[in-house]
Design goal:
The complex is a heterodimer of chains A (85) and B (382). With 85 residues, chain A is mainly β. Helices cover 8% and strands 32% of the residues of chain A. Chain A has a single domain, classed as 2Fe-2S iron-sulphur cluster binding domain, sarcosine oxidase, alpha subunit, N-terminal domain (Ubiquitin-like (UB roll)). The longest helix of chain A has 7 residues. With 382 residues, chain B is of the alpha/beta class. In chain B, a hairpin with a 5-residue loop joins β15 and β16. In chain B, α1 runs parallel beside α5 and α2 packs across α9. Chain B is elongated and about 65 Å long. Classes of the chains: A mainly beta (85), B alpha/beta (382). The interface between A and B is medium-sized, with 13 and 13 residues.
Chain lengths: 85, 382
């Protein structure tokens, strides 16, 4: 299947989380903090810390480490706190 | 080693506020808690400093006294406790609730509350994401919020700066009496000799006071709060709740009650309350509780529909049969004092409660009428 991340196409094997896809593509951060805009990526990797957030199909606060991509997903960097839509 | 003048049993916000006020008038205080400091009921709430939910009466008087004291007390403590005088907005979405709210606010104004009726349009200016189903609203500029664990720790730090002692992990098991009066608090690790003891164990004051041979009736009411992901600043600006919260607070109904209370925190997360269940000390989470909280919060703020919930937490609010705090001397045991029963309002009421308790202990003129909170009132003592 194929998804886009910040406009770039990525081919994704089955069974790999979005965090896995991003790390495999060489990215270590894909979000910025609310205060200070500092970079964040996967920290706990098990869905607890809510640090690896991305925006998937316009829905923010999606945990990349818990999300298995679906063909056609549009993923982008989350900048601080965002509201859905 | 110097023995304390007073042992405070319970290091929640009420015990901490009592200890702070007692140490401020020069008494030597030891605070003990069977667990960590500020880790029980005080760590399981929202940090309400509310006048908006209180009708005319003793609890409102105590809250107004607290509200007057908090700014000076926090300045004395010199700690950042996330105090936020954000104000409250109570909204009604039906004509019956609107009339009830208007009558309630009118009564509050006669008792010194700043309760300002606002039109729906003005309410939407105050809260742009509020549901357009609102037909009436009242703005309460006096309502505030603080972080309960931070304020508890700040109060306890002041006690220690004044020479007091904090002993987390020490369980009080009773009192040693001499001539019928408190001479020491017994613990799982020996006795602490003292001139007086204050039991401030929140919902556990019932069992602790029984161990002291002077039982008071305090019961737990469970409340659960949902925490959302951090949202952009100003998504939720005030403490916003629906008008039926007032009825739920005052109710004796055992069934699950849910009223929507929505507010943001300094960290950006939004807290969603409030539920009330009488289930003893059962801490298990019934799924219908967070479900009802979430559904009603989305009704108040539709934007929350696609916002994830990070976690839920809950705790036990201590209440007396007549829903008033218990503050004062135990009539059966000289030197024994109680401070508990603040239900979901203990954070806000702590400032005046500590001061009142210290006034009663030292024989000073009380700054609020202590009689409604006395221990020997019907249903509390015995």
């Amino acid at each position: 299947m194929r998804i886009t991340v910040d406009g770039e196409p990525h081919d994704v094997p089955d069974g790999r989380t979005l965090a896995g896809v991003l790390i495999a593509a060489g990215r270590v951060s894909w979000r910025t903090t609310r205060n200070g805009g500092r970079p964040r990526g996967a920290f706990c990797g098990i869905g607890v810390c809510f640090d690896c957030l991305v925006v998937v199909n316009d829905v923010p606060d999606v945990r990349a480490c818990q999300r298995f991509p679906v063909d056609g997903d549009t993923v982008r960097t989350q900048r601080g706190a965002e509201l859905p839509g | 080693m110097r023995y304390p003048d007073v042992v405070v049993v319970g290091a929640g916000v009420i015990g901490a506020a009592c200890a702070e006020a007692l140490s401020a008038v020069g008494l030597h205080v030891t605070v003990l808690d069977r667990g960590p400091l500020g880790a029980g009921t005080s760590a399981a709430g929202e940090g309400n400093v509310l006048v908006s939910d209180k009708g005319p009466g003793p609890e409102l008087d105590l809250e107004l006294a607290s509200l007057r004291r908090w700014p000076d007390l926090l300045a004395d403590l010199g700690a950042d406790v996330e105090w936020d005088a954000k104000g409250g907005l109570v909204v009604a979405t039906g004509e019956t609730a609107a009339r009830t709210l208007a009558d309630f606010a009118a009564a509050q104004r006669t008792a010194g509350v700043d309760a300002r009726p606002v039109s729906p349009a003005e309410a939407f200016d105050l809260e742009p994401h509020l549901t357009r189903a609102v037909v009436a609203a009242v703005h309460y500029p006096q309502d505030a919020q603080l972080q309960p664990v931070l304020v508890t720790k700040a109060l306890l730090a002041a006690v220690r700066r004044r020479g007091g002692t904090l002993r987390p992990g020490l369980r009080a098991t009773g009192a040693r009496l001499v001539n019928g009066a408190v001479a020491a608090v017994r613990t799982n690790d020996g006795e602490v000799p003292c001139g007086a003891a204050v039991i401030a164990c929140g919902p556990w004051s019932g069992e602790v006071s029984a161990a002291f041979g002077a039982p008071v009736t305090v019961l737990p009411r469970r409340g659960v709060i949902l925490v959302t992901a951090a949202l952009p600043p100003d998504t939720v600006r005030h403490k916003v709740y629906d008008a039926d919260y007032v009825g739920a607070v005052a109710s004796g109904n055992a069934d699950l009650q849910v009223s929507t209370v929505v507010e943001s925190t300094a960290g950006g997360t939004v807290l969603i309350g409030s539920s009330r269940e009488r289930v003893g000390f059962d801490a298990s989470l019934r799924v219908e509780v967070p479900r009802a909280l979430a559904r009603r919060a989305v009704g108040l703020f539709p934007v929350l529909a696609d916002v994830p919930v990070l976690r839920a937490y809950g705790g036990f609010r201590p209440y007396a049969p007549d829903h008033l705090p218990i503050i004062g001397a135990d009539p059966r045991c000289p030197g024994l004092w109680h401070a508990t029963g603040h239900e979901g309002a203990g954070i806000g009421l702590a400032a005046a409660t500590g001061r009142l308790l210290a006034e009663l202990v030292t024989g000073a003129e009380p700054h609020v009428d202590p009689r409604p909170f006395r221990v020997d009132r019907p249903g509390v003592c015995g």
